[in-house]
């Protein structure tokens, strides 16, 4: 292995740049060359790529987003698109790939490996923390802290006005952000796609809170569980409370990464380079029980990553 | 003057607590007593009030919202409601009022003064910065910094995905938050209620940006100018760009106040006490050209507070 | 078990309040009563304690420090002091103790258990992350983020002036904060008590950096490895570089806890209550490989908690 | 005027980059060319300079420090050094200068103007806010917020341990940072160079606080008034209190600029370009009473910029 390719793909996540920096520096340390591919798999097809050196990754450790940019590529999903990609990979002398992204992104490189034998290692970068094979994904800790900060701010107003607020957070298939941020922020109710909820129960809890002198409440909703606006309307219909709804949206992806995400990103990126150097392929690096490990992609792609039920129960108990 | 009443009214704004602390401590320093009224004018009607001392305001200098809470009171708008309020004011021996809030809040106390002669001084606390008689209102600087922080985060994603984002911020009648945050955050377009906008012009600017190699854009919209979702749809219709829309909502009110808001709040609160002690009434304290001044309410209520056109022009020039 | 006592002891750490909240709410949920002891073991001796309810822990989830306060108690180290403490424990009907603090704090309660049989469970709260039996202590993640934020700020100046900065951080016996923050912040050199350092090597690295065009460097020093001021002087003597030294000091303890610390604090606090209810004693709760576990105090007190050597090596490689 | 030179000089201040961006964009908007000079006046002597375009200032609006770097130049203080500088200025076709820095920095360009007639405009960028002719300097608001954040964090520990903390902040000749941050952060005592202090009075205040049940105190010291360590020692000698001392140091310069500093920086930078275009010279731009104004350098350099005594008195009253 003398030259590796590096790309970010899928939704951006804070810490991706810290991981890019680690891949580049670790590779250079071991005498490898790195080619950065811009805009995900599109960059392969359009030959939008070039060499990276120590200077390419100077001063990016603390910046959100990804300097390599990211995009969806419909063409890469076709056999003909991948053939074109492979041509460019060969033209640039790339002998192995590091793909930072979600499990959809790993699938792309995995198919390329099947078809053309080019080794690839995946690095889990997504704010949702819903990938099997790792306890944490890059960007999750930052996103959760952003949501907790928003809860803090909104609680000031909720308390001052003695009202109920609904906050909708990201998580189409996963309640991880909502669960972690709700537990950390002390949300009174947490709605996640993994666990069915009952609007009447939520309303009863609101009423019990009022009786006990509680003057405000925050209902945190993962977008995959319900729409925040729907929940607000249902609460109004059931018990007549006027709620305010905030949809945090893309605010949750960016911002300077937390120390946790930077360290995770550095460790995972460096491990990916080691694996390629050791001749491995079709694996994803991850953190399990504090150790950096590699998991075969067959145990990652399409596998469930269940939420922590204990944490869900605890959040309920602590929000009495 | 031996005993003054203090209330917060209208929407909460970060820094109100710093102002409450200043009113209470300044009053106590001069030997006055302070009665805190809870939940705005409702507290008068329901006699929901009580004495405040140094301990009441310990450890609140850095907390968002208002420890006195705030609420709308329909009853206070009736003559009968105000009669009840005045009864309680007399029962508690209150001889003068400090009202922290917006110009609607000042109107309430002003009518009470007209009807019953009780002196009142207003302190401008609202994130919109749209009150005549002061260069800055309490809460504005904090809100603007919150919006700038959101722009920073969203720009990470906008850059990584090379997309256009629309961010809707508060400001029903005022573009001050949008203008200041847009200038500070480098937004490519700023839409405010004070200045008519042209969606075609905005789209042309987006296209020119693309041509010049600009990979992302942020359109900042004050809610009073347009709905962020509408703008997103219109951009899509006109030039086919898929935009993402974020509505910051109540996030903008709370959070720990900035140093600027804390200092402003302290100075204004202290001045309000001085004015009551000097026998003044029907005035609002404010900051003008760095000096703390008092303005007659007749020059405040219902008066326009125009935006700074130079800043608007500058924002345009700098976002080329 | 009907009534438990709760105290914080040793240096304060951000997240202790989140843990206090969890202990109180979890206990009340299970029908237990909680007595809060103020100022660590002093509170036992001076009977400075009282019942806590849901209201006692309202609105503390996001606040640094500890509402129960903390102090050193020389008297508690004497047999007579502990006898007095035990009298008060009995007088207040306390049947089990939760102690949030470091391993010195656990020793105190452990001796009390030996002498009087009162059950106790320890919760690791210290910014140093140097306690055996847990992968993370409460307050560590917040402290590391504070140091990384300081590195970011100082790097702006280091870059602008093209200079070398020395930053001294906490860690008398442990390099954990320095190591994590140095890796996350991209410090050029990290000096920790666990690994001997060589000032000439550090200076050679500075010179190599200069030759390669690097315009600034940050040397991060754990107080247990060396004094920042000494390092600055030695660099000056060896290679003539004028360095600037910053000592972060007590800045590192406080501040609103990160989401990570809040969640950890909540989980550990709740587990401590469960253990007391299950009749356990002389254990410390901790997080190991993502799971909340209990470890016998004999395996905690005085046991080494080695640093992660892989992370140390990685930090070196990434700072080339 | 077709081509202007731009440099930053003296200590870096957060917001300098926002000002650089405004100068470059405003100049380009009006058809001017901009030459950026690196490392302050050294860059002139070493011809370390080059053209700036829209891309040079992309993505710098929110970054601390200065992309043009800054340095002291002993050679520029000599006639021969300035002759060399002027040669390079002519070689690069520079017809006017914008200097962002403190009043020492303006002096340099002012002498150059006297000797060679090259027009120059100063932009006040320094965290100390001690320049006559402007109510605020670029970087001051950010520095004050950084200090307030530090006070918040340290107060958590001060409260938890019931102790007195001394915090030393920047300000060799000016107490502005200490005064603003002390008022905003609620420091119990504020020591500034402009007003003599009495250690006995400070100790008496500490004792009175203790008597009244106050459990902690923060003494904020501008470095120009005393050394924090000295104050700590004196308090110990006089009344036996063990204090902890934190020296914030260079932490105060960097970090992402606040919205206030960004807007100020943008407005001042743009105004500087306008003045050069209008044929002005030897002036400093500033903000006075909310308006952007120009002041002759003879009224700026060496002129006192007194502190706001009212604010000092208010801080005393509010910290009772």
TrEMBL record, chains A, B, C, D:
One of its GO terms (cellular component) is 6-phosphofructokinase complex. Substrate binds at residues 126-128, 163, 170-172, 223, 244, 250-253. Pathway: Carbohydrate degradation; glycolysis; D-glyceraldehyde 3-phosphate and glycerone phosphate from D-glucose: step 3/4. It comes from the Bacteria. Its main location: cytoplasm. It holds the Pfam family PFK. Mg(2+) binds at residue 103. GO terms for biological process: canonical glycolysis; fructose 1,6-bisphosphate metabolic process; fructose 6-phosphate metabolic process. ATP binds at residues 11, 72-73, 102-105. It catalyses: beta-D-fructose 6-phosphate + ATP = beta-D-fructose 1,6-bisphosphate + ADP + H(+). Its EC number is 2.7.1.11. Keywords: Allosteric enzyme, ATP-binding, Cytoplasm, Glycolysis, Kinase, Magnesium, Metal-binding, Nucleotide-binding, Transferase. Allosterically activated by ADP and other diphosphonucleosides, and allosterically inhibited by phosphoenolpyruvate. PANTHER family: ATP-DEPENDENT 6-PHOSPHOFRUCTOKINASE (PTHR13697:SF4), PHOSPHOFRUCTOKINASE (PTHR13697). Belongs to the phosphofructokinase type A (PFKA) family. ATP-dependent PFK group I subfamily. Prokaryotic clade 'B1' sub-subfamily. Homotetramer. Catalyzes the phosphorylation of D-fructose 6-phosphate to fructose 1,6-bisphosphate by ATP, the first committing step of glycolysis. This is ATP-dependent 6-phosphofructokinase. It comes from Desulforamulus reducens (strain ATCC BAA-1160 / DSM 100696 / MI-1). The lineage of its organism: Bacteria, Bacillati, Bacillota, Clostridia, Eubacteriales. The gene is pfkA.
